[in-house]
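Workshop exercise sheet. Pairs work together: one partner reads the sequence aloud, the other fills in the structure field after running the prediction. Swap roles for the next sheet.
Pair: D.N. / O.F.
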Amino acid sequence: MTTSWLVTGAGGMLGRDVLTELAGDPGAEVTGVTRHQLDITDPDAVRAAVDGHRVVVNCAAWTDVDAAEDAEDAATAVNGTGVRHLARACADSGAVLLHVSTDYVFSGDAEDPYAESAPTAPVNAYGRSKLAGEHAVAEVLPTTGYTVRTAWLYGTHGRNFVTTVLELACRRETLDVVVDQHGQPTWSRALARQLAALGRAALDGRAPAGVYHGTATGRTTWYGLARETFRLSGLDPDRIRPVGSAAFPRPAARPAFGALGHGRWPGTGVPPQPRWNDQLPAALGTPAFAALAATARGSQ
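Structure field:
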């Protein structure tokens, strides 16, 4: 028996990895829609797209953190109202919704990883818009809605920190990287595997609805991630220089601490993700990242 999955935001980094992961499941019948094919702010279009699917994985989102500061209504239309449309369509059709959220719903002033139940207090417009989406899932789908918060996502299908530092390595002798923000670098392919497993667990009744944290275990800083990326790529990590966040003023405040706890996974049959410094070598071993690293080494 096959299960029909719908993946929104299928043209983005995570969406493409979710499609790849589900393609290896003979029991999954998968439809992927890009933001050009489905505008989740259109409730009628959302209802038509969701109809007939058993699991919806929402990877569609407004992700420009700084631009959201001057366009919070537009960001919330996608990250909040659009998610509510998806949740209502899932409620009408009986589908399970897996919605991807962010560590930016927290204030970032903790010292220990945030539990799934920790109080939220976003410090920027993007975080507020994502929190609106979380509330929509909880309110509309109390028994079949799943919010999976992730953070510091990188992968081979889009712009992200890891690809950026490797590209900059070709043009700059040294790179200044922030050392006072702490988080969990997470490979998009590892999150895609976890989302697929959570969807199956939800259908099997093994995973109660609610919030889960989909990040790598362990933690580091952007500086630590950059150094490890260089080291694993055969580049000199001492080319990375530590600086404070004040060196890079941005329109949107960033949480200083974004590490998340993973206390809800036990009992679901879905394991927490590997440590960030175990995920990174696997990611850098993929052809796309390996090619970037080879180009960077050749420019030295």
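Discussion prompt: The CA atoms of residues 58 and 94 lie 16 Å apart. What would you look at next?
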